[in-house]
Amino acid sequence: MVEPALYFQVLIWLAVLGVFFASGQASIFHPATLYMGFHGVVFVIRPILVYWLDFDSVWRYMGYRPDEADFIRALGVSSVALIAFVGASLYFGKLQTRFALKPALPLDPLQRRALFWTTLILLPYIAASIATTQNGGGGERAENGVFIQTHSTGYLNDAQFMLAPLLCAWLVATRFHWLNLPPIVLYVAYRSWTGWSRWTIVLFFLMIIFAYCWQQRRRWLPLGAILTAIPVLMLFNVLGHNRDLLKNLLTGTQNESAIVDIRPGMTVDEKRNLRYDTQDFANFDYLCFVVSVYSDAHDAYTYGSQYLQLLTEPIPRILWKGKPTGSPVPGRIDLRTYGNFLGLTVSLPGDGWVSGGWIGVVILMSLGGLIVGKCHRWFWNRSDRPIAALFYVAGVAMSPQWYRDGGISIYKFLLWTWLPFFVWLGMIWWLGGRSVQGSVITLRAGDRLRLVRPEPGGTSLN
């Protein structure tokens, strides 16, 4: 039964893709575009590799192997999630997708001046964040496997993520001048040096591509952008095998534990699996595990209570020593009691399943599609405004992290991605666009106030 289910999985993805293009809304800027790509990689290609090439490293890591029913059920969950998400995003995001102005207007002097001061204000904060994390960051892992800040705060440690949107804003401000290349190279080198959070490199690349397409008024990727994705993905893969790659190259040391252990006598299939059967795109494997656990304990669904963490997460742990690790309402199931789930993610469809099974998947994915669909409409109605466009393209570039993780992690990413733009708007208001209160006029009931202006070519009396 697994093989027919895999064929059906491909057909469903192709059918939804056909509907997406037939809708007339398809473009690189539509949130469903990245979700279709995400689903195609982790829920179409990955299960095929798992089944036909016997990719099992993730099963062995978790100490779990799905039976045929769990495998097919996970395929079904992902397909229902795809239909609900894309369908809702198309319905609630429907409008004519066409740029009114070609090319995009440059930033005005006030916006450029405000961006300069925004950068000066935020750079010391970013530098302090980098310095703090280089000294360890003051964190530890809690009993439930969640990494928490005990001697510092995420408001300082994660502030360095503002570098990417700042660099993207300067690319737009300078119309992608080549002088932006050195700071971009330095940023990528720094992220490669740290090794961790390698997703920030890929998401930064997506942000640049979206911003470029917006400025050039392109609805789809140029060929050159597709070619530049190759070295980015290669770097992502290499860092997955060795987080200290750049450090080792510069210091001349070698991390033995990060070396791919290819031994004499290994078959071609074993060598291939050792290199490519990794956790990078294994969300299907995780989903099988999640579906299996919650199917056996269907009375333990969370009903969305994990999102209550949005109320507690903003409070720094250094101010609240007893702050819960995760949702303030703990679920009745701990995935760690069923297998090793440390460092793994449930994905957005898995989050829907955890919330309420099939109904939870439909509701959560439809709600997500509604939100991104409304954002899609908001973008096209303001696509000629540079800062509004940056808000949107930066948010869309972060969405793969949401699809991959599920839960509230996307809100942390958006906080640091959008904060520079909010500061930028504040500086525009402060430097030239702010309104201040003048005289107060009190009118009696029944009084009328008439506003007048001078005729064209005339003079006004003050």
Quick description:
This protein is mainly alpha-helical and 462 residues long.
Structural account:
The chain has 462 residues and is mainly alpha-helical. It has 17 helices and 2 strands. A two-stranded antiparallel sheet has the order 1-2.
Summarize the SSE layout with pairings.
Layout: H1 2-22, H2 31-52, H3 57-62, H4 68-92, H5 109-134, E1 139-141, E2 147-149, H6 154-157, H7 163-173, H8 181-194, H9 199-216, H10 223-241, H11 245-251, H12 268-276, H13 283-296, H14 309-312, H15 347-381, H16 386-405, H17 409-433
Antiparallel strand pairs: 1-2
Features:
462 residues; globular; mainly alpha; two-stranded antiparallel ribbon; disordered C terminus; 61% helix; single chain
State the major sheet: 2 strands, antiparallel
Backbone structural class: mainly alpha
Strand content: under 5%
Radius of gyration: 25 Å
Q: What is the CA-CA span between the terminal residues?
A: 85 Å
Calculate the mean pLDDT score and round it. Answer: 83
Helix tally equals 17
Order of helices and strands: HHHHHEEHHHHHHHHHHHH
| Tertiary shape | globular
* Share in helix: 55-70%
Low-confidence residue ranges: 458-462
The number of distinct β-strands equals 2
Largest sheet, order of strands side by side?
Answer: 1-2
